[in-house]
Amino acid sequence: MNKTISINTVLFFLSIVFFSACSGTRKYYKAGEKLETEGLTDEAAEFYLEAVQRKTTNVGARIKLKQVGQKYVSELGSDFYRNYNLDQTEASLQSFEKLKSFISRSGEQGVNLIYPSEYEDNYKAIIEKYCFKNYTLGTDLLKSKNYSDALKYFANVVKYKPDYKKLAQLKIIAICEPLYQNAIAAIENKNYIQATRFLSAIQQNNPNPYKDSKDLWGLCVIQQKKGILLFKSGSSTEKKIADYLFDNFSSIVVKDLATVSLISNGPFVSLPQGNSGINTDLIQSIRKATGADYFYTFDITDKQLQYTEPTKNIAKCYRRVTYRTNDGRLMMDYKPTDYYHVTGKKRFAYQFKYSLINAVSNQMVCSENITMNMQDNLEYNEFVFAPQLSMDNYFPYNPLSSFGAQYNIHSWRNLFYANRTIMSEQQLAEMANQAAIKKFKGTIVNYIK
Predict the structure, then answer these.
(1) Contact of 197 with 213, CB cutoff 8 Å
(2) Residue 284 neighbours by CB distance under 10 Å
């Protein structure tokens, strides 16, 4: 029977199995018998194995697996030995590995198959020859700078002997050297972003620094940083706040922002202004003198502190009481009780105006005038006289007659335990300053790339 008929037969039985109940061991057994009759030992053996895997108590399939499977193993062994003697390295490896795989899978089902023990020594000898051949070819390709093809041969060696000779070192060279050369070329072309990508790939593939890639990485980071000059506007009326923010802005640039470098102001105290705004000629002079890419200027004005003294407004709540009547009945009533509802507030605010300018193009990148407003509200309840019962017995309304006025009792009761101190001016000022610092950092991160 020719090969075309054999393949069609296999496909036919595969389709039968697929479109039938897939768990049926009998279907696989019958298909195996048909394939065996056709002389397709390898396919029949696989079907018998599948039948046993689906039902280990299928005695007929187990017997057939032992008989046909052993025949299949013998055929693979013959192919292996023939290829071995003909010095067909890849073919002999393939035959022996198929043999070992089938024996292993059959053994898991309790069906033991055998092959000549000397094949193991032959297999080891072939692996040695195979690894030496691929290692040598890969090394030669590496020397000729054909890195991608060298890696293919090294991968063949890794499959069998990951620790073979200097394989690990050569693999690193084959992977990292082309990336390193590309990084060097990108740096020479001042394409530091692309160079960083190549150097990053080196780091991902090699935990140890490759050549001077670590130093090159640092160079690229520095070259990609944008220089920024910070200015306190001369129009600021709140010098103490402006000085505090300036110091914090400078610290953030130095410590937290990897893409920006701080340039010392030197003699420049404020950003030069002309009759119509920014003096572009002076900006260009400062840029050339300092190398700045961006200018950031800000001012602080109109500081305000508003404090409303706490006021006590008397109000009534109702205390639940229980008592017994003369005839012994237990009764409940709600007695009005005075309490204070205390409110107050403190507000600290100032105007924070800033501008970010691209020193190279003289363009305003962004500008904003924000009110940094922080406020603390004071609100709590307290009894005029010490409470006589648990808070569970107090109500903001008379439950017997004010059903329409009911509201969240828990919120009202919680006000008797609320905070009775208000934030200091220093605390509110610090909150406002932190909001300004956060705004500065967000501006730099979002607009300077």
Answers:
(1) no
(2) 13
DSSP conformation class of 212: T
Residues 281, 427 within the same domain: yes
Is the domain of 352 the same as that of 438? yes
In a domain, 8, yes or no: yes
| Statement to judge: residues 71 and 167 lie in one domain | no
Q: Count the residues in the chain.
A: 449
At which residue do the structure tokens 């393949």 appear?
7
Question: Do 94 and 43 share a structural domain?
Answer: yes
Give per-residue pLDDT as tens, 14-73.
Answer: 555 444 444 579 999 999 999 999 999 999 999 999 999 999 999 999 999 999 999 999
Are 32 and 51 within 8 A, CB to CB? Answer: yes
pTM of the model: 0.56
The answer to whether residues 270 and 387 belong to one domain is: yes
Residue 9 pLDDT more than 70? no
Q: In terms of Cα–Cα distance, which of 296, 289, 286, 293 is closest to 248?
A: 296
Task: Give the separation between CA 189 and CA 260, rounded to whole angstroms.
Answer: 22
Euclidean distance between CA atoms 375 and 122, whole angstroms: 86
The Cβ of residue 423 has, within 10 Å, a number of other Cβ atoms equal to 18
